[in-house]
Amino acid sequence: MPSTPRSPTAGSPSPSSPPPSTPIPGSNATERDPTMILTDAQRSTLLELIDLTARSRALRHEHDHPADAPKLQELIGRHKALGEEKSSVAEVIAGLETENAELSAAIEKQNAQIAKKTAELNDGTGLTSRDLVHLQEEIAAHEGKVAELEETELESMERLETAQTELAGVEASISEVTAEGKTVQTGIKDRKAALAGELDELGSQESQLKADLPPDLVRRFEGNVAQGGPGAAVLTGPNCQACGQEISGMTWHAWLAEDVNEVHACEECEAVLLRRS
Ligand SMILES: [Zn+2]
């Protein structure tokens, strides 16, 4: 961010060691440097405008990059992952339900055979003793099969129950994440609306201040803001406080001799430059 004071040219001469040149009061450093002298009221207005513009920039940044945006993204990601988990658990449940239905049908089939053969056995009409023994063996085999199937069915039902509990848990998590997501989303929306309102308010205050300043200065100020700069900067030394560009010793000393309300333009970033009073 070019708005923070910095001095990239660390070895630059400090204002306390001036070169042996005699500054000419009121002289322009270059032809490209349109100077003008502000009134004290205009100076105050410009300082206020710098302040408002910085505040606008910070609010604009917050508006465009909501603090909770990463949190919302994280919740959206979690919601998606939970949705996938829900699908896979639901698939497991469907498989187990099919398995259980098949086991129940198989048990029913065995029981039907047991009932049929028990009836034949009880009837006994035209059966030899060997037939009877054979029938009894068959019934016992069916009963053994039923016991085996029932054991498998029980295990399958237990797995189904576990999967259903898991599904309920996943669904509860989805509800929680959805609710939290809505809260965060609403929070972001409300904050953005509030910031937009504040930005509008600051914008109209800025317009009022600009109306009290020379149009040429306002044009340069806005040009620098459009480039991402602060518009104007108060100089604390021979460097542009907007972009860091070093101001030559000669120019700086010429400026030092001028009226404190004389403004210049940075040769590098065209920011309006005002000396500290
Ligand atoms: Zn500059």
From TrEMBL:
Pfam families: CT398_CC. It comes from the Bacteria. Residues 1-14 have a biased composition (Low complexity). The lineage of its organism: Bacteria, Bacillati, Actinomycetota, Actinomycetes, Micrococcales. Keywords: Coiled coil. This is CT398-like coiled coil hairpin domain-containing protein. Residues 93-180 form a coiled coil. Residues 1-35 are annotated as: Disordered. Transmembrane segments: none annotated. Residues 55-228 form the CT398-like coiled coil hairpin domain. InterPro entries: CT398_CC_hairpin (IPR056003).
